[in-house]
Amino acid sequence: MKKISKLQVLRFVIQIGFLFFLPSLFTLTFGELKQLYSMIASGNFNFTAALPQLLEAIVVIPATILLGRFFCGWICAFGTFNDIIYLLSNRLFKTKFIVKEKVDSVLKYLKYVVLLFIIFLAWIKGISLDSYSPWNAFAQSTEFTETIFLYPVGFGILALIVVGTIFIERFFCRYLCPLGAIFSITSKLRLLRINKNREKCGKCRICTNNCSMGIKLYEVDVVNSGECINCMKCISSCPRSNTELKIVGKKVNPAFVSGAIILSFIAIYSLSTILVAKSNVALSTDTNLSKTENSISENNNSTSSTEGKKYKDGTYEGTGRGYRPNLKVSVTIKNDKITDVQILSNNETPRYTTIPFDTIPKEIIDSQSTDVDTISGATRTSNGIMEAVEDALSQAKTGGSGESSATKESGNQSTDESNNSGRYDGKEIYPGEEYNKNNAPNDNFGDNLSPRFDGNRRQRHR
């Protein structure tokens, strides 16, 4: 049995860790690149304002430019999925399918075609491709029986990828990954490179045969290819220790450097997430206090006349189901217009709420309608907000029990509720059952089953 190097054991442990704890990074990063494009194209890019919406991209892209595709080789959950499938197939079939070098070189251009296709249709034309995404299908694989009808094409493509991965290592990463296409360009300027002295290699091609991405390593002294994902298998497999990892020409220990890079990435990402969360909490508190004051003032100044109006003035609460139940909002109506939408409480995954919680309420107010675009990567959360707003508006149409929430509750109660907005104590109940957080479905990828709606929802890539 072939001995596995300690470096590859370290890599596999790190891959599994990211698969379980940060499996959504690849979808968030790619979605945020579209968001970045939209901001720049519209001339509305502000780094400070954009940071909460572009956190993953802001961390991952610079790291790839400086250090190469560590993200692909060590962090990406879909890459790990490819590795696991190929590892199992190797153990099962005990054979390796070899792709001819010329064929492999041509097929690698497919991912650029896929990237251009997505940019044109989804980014420029605004056409939703969510149901065609194998990433979305992969995210929903734990709920296959419920989601197969939402992503039939996506699951079909995912099945083809699995078949391809059985025979070809990193099949998707080599030939189809749009994020990999971007990284293969941005990593060209990396400071970290693999070097090898071909004079000592002779006719040996062990490093090439073990390369996850099928790079022709026997032809080069320095690996400059953008296809390199820094998996280090060429270093681990070389019987002569002829392959070396160098930073700006200086030899370094691959295990130490790889571990340091991953730890640095985790530290920077965690710190950024904490800072963004604190910023969002401060903003939410200020907004909710202002909303409460305005709600009380509007209620005191409102009249009881509703003749000729679609909605009664006041503040109404509504509940919808995002990925998880009990997504609660408040909707303020003044002069027959939606003037404010606030998220009161929710059980959603935090990193998937930043964009929809900021964007969907604004667009509902701007369009005076709940028929707005959902956020790709957070479809169910987006739909849950709209469902909750519709619930609140249904009360405004009929007047609920004849009173708005501002009239029905005292000022102190309203203020207390506002100050507690965004908190979840685990005790909320939605129709028909008690919510059990331990049994809640995994929401790591954000794009999930559509809530119960009568109308159609458009989806937009972010």
From TrEMBL:
SUPFAM superfamilies per record: 4Fe-4S ferredoxins (SSF54862)
For this UniProt record, the keywords arranged alphabetically read as follows:
Cell membrane, Iron, Iron-sulfur, Membrane, Metal-binding, Transmembrane, Transmembrane helix
Residue spans of biased composition, Polar residues class: 395-422, 437-447
Superkingdom assignment: Bacteria
Basic and acidic residues bias locations? 424-436
Q: Which residues cross the membrane?
A: 12-30, 57-88, 109-128, 148-168, 255-277
Q: What residue spans carry the Low complexity bias annotation?
A: 291-306
Give the span(s) annotated as Disordered: 291-319, 394-462
Asked if the keyword Manganese belongs to this entry, the reply reads no
**Chain ranges of the 4Fe-4S ferredoxin-type domain:** 219-248
Q: Pfam families from the xrefs?
A: Fer4_5 (PF12801), FMN_bind (PF04205)
InterPro entries the UniProt entry points to:
4Fe4S_Fe-S-bd, 4Fe4S_Fe_S_CS, FMN-bd, NosR_regulator
Sections of the chain in a coiled coil = none
Q: Which compartments is it annotated to reside in?
A: Cell membrane
**In its keyword annotation, does this UniProt entry include Methyltransferase?**
no
Q: Which PANTHER family match?
A: ELECTRON TRANSPORT PROTEIN, ELECTRON TRANSPORT PROTEIN YCCM-RELATED
Protein name, UniProt field = 4Fe-4S binding protein
Classification from the root reads: Bacteria, Bacillati, Bacillota, Clostridia, Eubacteriales
